[in-house]
Amino acid sequence: MDDLTRILKGLPFFEGFADEHLALLVGCARNERATAGSFLFREGQDATTFYLIREGSVSLNIHAPGQGPLIVQTVSENEPLGWSWLFPPYTWHFDARVEQDARMVVFDGLCLRTKCDKDPVFGYELIKRFSRIMTQRIEALSFQLMDVYGERS
Amino acid sequence: MVTIQRNDLQTLFDALERRGYRIISPTVRDEAIILDTVHSADDLPKGRGEEQSAARYRLNRREDDALFGYAVGPHAWKQFLYPPVQTLLQARREGTSRSSGEPGFALLNPEGADEEPAMAFVGVRPCDLAAIRRLDAVFLQGPFQEPGYARRRSRALVVVAQCTAPSGTCFCASMNTGPSAPDGFDIALTEVLSTGPTVYLAESGSERGAEILRDVTCRPSTSEEISAAARAIESAAGRMGRHVDLDGLSETLRRSIEHVRWQQTAQRCLSCANCTMVCPTCFCSTVEDTTDLTATIAERRRRWDSCFTLDYSYIHGGSVRPSGMSRYRQWIMHKMSTWVDQYGTYGCTGCGRCITWCPVGIDITQEVAAVQHPSIESVTPPRENVHG
Amino acid sequence: MANAPDLMAESAVLAEAPDPMRPRLFRIAKFTHNTHDTFTVALEDLETGAGIGFRPGQFNMVYLYGVGEIPISISGDPQDRSVVIHTTRAVGTVTKAMRSMRKGDTLGLRGPYGVPWPVDRARGRDVVIVAGGIGLAPLRPVLYHCLAHRNEMNKLVLLYGTRSPVDILYREELESWRARFDLDVYVSVDRGMEGWHGNVGFVSTLIAKAPFDAGNTTAYLCGPEVMMRVCATELIKRGVPDHELFVSMERNMKCGIGFCGHCQLGPVFICKDGPVFPYPRMRNLLSPWEL
Predict the structure, then answer these.
(1) Most buried one in A18, B134, B343, C10, CB count within 10 A?
(2) pLDDT tens digits for range B342-361
(3) Which positions in chain A touch C226 (Cβ < 8 Å)?
């Protein structure tokens, strides 16, 4: 088993993935590092990848002139980042800035989409995992937006 | 059991006054039977009866000279045991903190409350005795005792008048709190009108009561009188104007928190808090803080409160029960369900006051029945209250 | 028949008992501003110069001359009886007046009242403390207790969420705790800002990240009701048994001892049956609207 396969096997996101599906993933993946302060992607850029953070953390920001960046969410160890690669027009909606030096596995979006189309069982497994993460993020985001700690008016 | 002639009843009042009691009993004021200080048996509502229905209360004349020929008026005994306004604390400003200008202060000693005469409650209906015992559970049997209530209650003498005159809104028989009280009193009277001239059968329920009865002009009761008294009480039990089905009631309500009935009833409820003010077991209070103009003396006063107010459930930022629905539900749930969890009894004693004094005639017995038996349709409010 | 005389005898004694509605006077020995809207007072009894004994999770009724009285949880170290510590947020009439007080000022105190956190339950288990906003204040005594009895439990985890980095309570203390090897501290804010490199996201998102053995965990939760509901659900999802979750509740209180009625939530009085409850007892009471 090569390094990348071992890494993917150890990620909770891929828990229960069949070996042949892991092999398909590995074919689209590479390891990367990023330094704190750098950007993984910017709002409006083409979304060609998704990330699995192995170490460090990355924040998702919206920047407004005069207000500075608003951090929407942070993503850290063992969490996936980015789903804009899944759907047209494949465009990022946030700025992703590295907060703490990060190590991650980067997946090529086009490569994955092609494999999903060819192997719907693989595709379904992958989409199931993304759907779950999306649901969790939306739930957490609604409570975050409620501003539950603030003074109610 | 002893029998007191109608004309000798004054000797009971005399015996109480001699012992220094402030006698409080039903008496007529402004065409209602209220509770107030009296000195003589003649102050009782002689020959007066009443007509009670949802949102309706009228005094009328009886054809006899009964002194206890009515059920209950708008007053309950809680006003004497737990007055509507009580001073909790007085403090005096002393000096000023150098750093912030905020006052230091000292607490003043409470005024000598022991100077108050002990009270004798004469003519307590069994439903109202049950209510007093509900309040005992709240103020005396919790982790803390309310000292003012404890003091007034322990000194108060209770003369029950077993109920032979239920009203149209009464349902103590279904709540198992009347029409007669088996215990919990110092003296119990039963008014007997059927054996000739009006007489009062009396029994003592405590050493204190027995001692007082020894000073009252009386004779041993005849068996005819005793059975006439029993018949009068039995007849009262059969003449209750309202009924509640207690079978599984608290549990049914607990499962009906989201019942649509609460919203329907809330459309009629004015949140006026009348029901909580007349209810003999409603005990909620709030506290208000005041200072005099120079802020030299500060006072904390406890004041009766109602779960129908918005402030009642206020936590920073808002009210926990902003809607009339949730406030009405809180009240009825407490009386008929959660009180059982808290104190092991229902919070309602079936006195009927909340039905009589509700300005729109909301009837607690109909409300619980509508939840218990969904086939019962929502009942139209009484005609006299339909406006426009 | 016997009830009436018994009651008389019993309450004749009760009438002699001290008035539980009458406060004792305390002096502010130390006043600290925590965040822009939170502050901490350390109080000494005017007569004894000392604090009071209490158990983590209990509260006092705090009286301000001429202003009013409110319940505030005790947030100091239960082992330290030299002062009474209260941290609170200036949101109401009393707390806003309190914020303008200074060292040397006098206030009234009744307590301690209420059911404490069952801290002994954590023996031999992992302890997860989940706090939201000012909810960290009533939980700080649990942390002090756990750190003082650190060898009695396994993992000790603090998950803390608040609105933004400037709203983080006890910041220096959190940093010193985070530096310890025997305590895992995770903080998340709902709104990040420039210069904040920590977690952004609702506090519930920390539950999946933190290392603890869910099946052998006791968790203590305090914060806004929504936050406690969401976090309890997440903890149960992760495998913590529901009867090992404890929540601390807040309701209007005028007396703190079961007389005023205001703090009722269904069948419970928050003041005397709580404020700390096992989560299964609260779950059904938290879901109906406006109960």
Answers:
(1) B134
(2) 999 999 999 999 999 999 99
(3) 143, 146, 148
